[in-house]
Q: What sequence folds into this?
C-alpha cells in the first residue's frame, strides 16, 4: 500500500536505494545491540537495550514517515541522512562496556535527532493541518535533543554506578518524546 504524498495523492514510486541502505544501517545497529546483550544478559542491560531499540524505532519511523510524505530527494536531505547513519552506528557501538563511552552514544543520538528536526523543519509546502503536526514533531525532537544532551553530560560527569539507570531513563524519556507526537499527530494524517 502506498503512502499518500504531500499533495494527498497515492504515490507508486518504488523504494530508493538510499532508503534501503539506511534500513541496512539500522539493521546493523540492532545486530550490534543484540551482540551487546548476549555478552551481558542482566535485567539492567535488558532495560537499556529495550529503551535503545525504542529510540532506534522512533528514529527509523521518523525517517520512513518523512520519505512517505515527501518523496523528493535533495542533496541536503541525503547529507543529513548520512550524518544520521553515522550517528546511529556510533550510538550502537557505545552500548557495550568495551566500546565507545556512553556519553559519546548520547551525543550521537542527539546529532541524529537534530538531523530529524532539520529534515522535518524543511517540509514547508504542506497543508495547514499537516504543517501544525510537523511543527509538533519539530518541537518534540528538539526536546529529545535536550534530553539526550543532558544525559551525555551526566554520563560524562557521573560515577559508573548510576549510568545504566540514567541511560535507560533518558532513552525512555527521549523515545517517548519522539514517538508519542509522531504517532498521535502525524500518523493519523498519513
A:
Amino acid at each position: 500500500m502506498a503512502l499518500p504524498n504531500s499533495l494527498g495523492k497515492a504515490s507508486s514510486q518504488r523504494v530508493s536505494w538510499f532508503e534501503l541502505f539506511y534500513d541496512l544501517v539500522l539493521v546493523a545497529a540492532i545486530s550490534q545491540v543484540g551482540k551487546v546483550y548476549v555478552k551481558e544478559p542482566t535485567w539492567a542491560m535488558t532495560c537499556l537495550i529495550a529503551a535503545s531499540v525504542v529510540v532506534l524505532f522512533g528514529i527509523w519511523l521518523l525517517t520512513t514517515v518523512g520519505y512517505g510524505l515527501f518523496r523528493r530527494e535533495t542533496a541536503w536531505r541525503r547529507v543529513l541522512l548520512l550524518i544520521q547513519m553515522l550517528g546511529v552506528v556510533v550510538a550502537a557501538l557505545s552500548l557495550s562496556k568495551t566500546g565507545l563511552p556512553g556519553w559519546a552514544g548520547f551525543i550521537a543520538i542527539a546529532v541524529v535527532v537534530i538531523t530529524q528536526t532539520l529534515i522535518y523543519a524543511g517540509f514547508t509546502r504542506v497543508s495547514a493541518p499537516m504543517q501544525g503536526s510537523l511543527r509538533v514533531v519539530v518541537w518534540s525532537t528538539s526536546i529529545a535533543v535536550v534530553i539526550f544532551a543532558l544525559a551525555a553530560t551526566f554520563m560524562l560527569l557521573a560515577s559508573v554506578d548510576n549510568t545504566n539507570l540514567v541511560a535507560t531513563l533518558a532513552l525512555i524519556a527521549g523515545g517517548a518524546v519522539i514517538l508519542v507526537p509522531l504517532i498521535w499527530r502525524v500518523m493519523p494524517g498519513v
